[in-house]
Amino acid sequence: MCYTKGPIPAYAITDHALQIFVVQVLEVKDDLEWPLHVYGWVATRDSVDPKRNLLFNRTRDNCQVLTQEDSYLQLTGPSRAVVLIDLVTFQVELKVKGDKESEDKFLSLKVFEYKTPTSYRDKPYLNHTCCSSKRSTIEVTYAAFDETVEATVARVQVINGSWPDHLRGLVVCRTTSSLDKGDILLLDSRDGGMPITCDVGAIELSRRVVSVEVRGQLSVDVVASRIDDKSDVVAKDRVVFRYRICGSNHGICDLGFCKVEITVSWSLLATLRDMMGSHTE
Questions:
Q1: What residue ranges do the domains of the chain occupy?
Q2: pLDDT confidence bin for 278, thresholds 50/70/90
Q3: How far apart are CA 263 and CA 220, in angstroms?
Q4: CA torsion angle 209 55 231 225 (round to 10)
Q5: How far are the Cα atoms of 31, 118, 183, 247 from residue 23, in angstroms, in the given order?
Q6: Domain DUF6598, which positions (predicted)?
Q7: What average pLDDT does this structure show over 242-271?
Q8: What are phi and psi of 91, to 5 degrees?
Q9: Overall fold of domain 14-280
Q10: Nearest to 115 by CA among 155, 88, 90, 142
């Protein structure tokens, strides 16, 4: 959200970006068995900033439990758009928690790169990169988009009514443009109730930042289902936002028992080459 408000500098533009969809543990090998108590991190690095742009980050005392039936990492990033200028580097450093720290084992320790496509004339498609190691195979799913802006789902808030305690919540979005599939999970309360701040009704999302193609749209779904049966959808609604280069806009999902207001903030991207050029002018 660097350029949502205020003057927009000349080096803030629409540019190529990499949209990360999911990271999944496909299989475990060697001496590992399901379920897994996983911690560590998965991150990207691009030309804009050499620091890690974290997709997943958990400490040993806050592991995620993965089962063979549900082996997707709960992503919390990226914190900004992954800009695709030169190479984008993916880094994976994940461990499985043992009974004591000395018994912890590496699940995956991998680095791989994604190179900028030579042409963007073809429609974007989902890339599935598998990282195999001694103890696991991990798959990262992503897509390269042409001209994009950064959309941040800044706030999701119950503004009328209340969310029932016996219902789990799902917030998922999709960029409706040249890619005709690929959901981006912003929140899945899984086996618990919706994580809502009691005093203001704000729903605590796991991740917020999405890349949206110019001339595209961002759709956001809010879904309520029973905690003991996620296939039993009780209520669902969708709001669609047309892309913008700056500012914020709002939409409301009406689930019947409550209304949920969604706020999206928009920003152009800053690229290293343009920032460097602006300092020499």
A1: 14-280
A2: very low
A3: 10
A4: -50
A5: 22, 25, 13, 31
A6: 17-264
A7: 95
A8: -125, 135
A9: Immunoglobulin-like (2.60.40)
A10: 88
- Whole-structure pTM over 0.85, yes or no? yes
Residue 275 in this model has a pLDDT that exceeds 60: no
Q: Please state whether the peptide bond connecting residue 35 to the residue before it is cis, i.e. omega within 30 degrees of 0.
A: yes
Specify the amino acid at residue 57: N
Tokens encoding 234: 């009780």
Q: Which of 168, 137, 153, 269 is nearest to 219 (CA)?
A: 153
The phi, psi pair for 153, rounded to 5°, reads -75, 90
Per-residue tokens: 96: 């499985």
Residues whose CB is less than 8 angstroms from the CB of residue 122 and which lie 6 or more positions away in sequence, other chains included = none
Rounded Cα distance, 33 and 30, in Å: 9
Averaged pLDDT for residues 61-66: 97
- What is the structure's pLDDT at 281? 38
Please determine, for residue 79, whether its predicted confidence score (pLDDT) is greater than 60. Answer: yes
Percentage of the chain exceeding pLDDT 70: 93
> Concatenated DSSP letters for 146-207?
EEEEEEEEEEEEEEEE---TTEEEEEEEEEESS-----EEEEE-TTS---B-TTT-BB--S-
pLDDT per position as a tens digit, 182-232: 899 999 998 888 999 877 899 999 999 999 999 899 999 999 999 887 778
Signed CA dihedral, 55, 115, 148, 24: sign only: negative
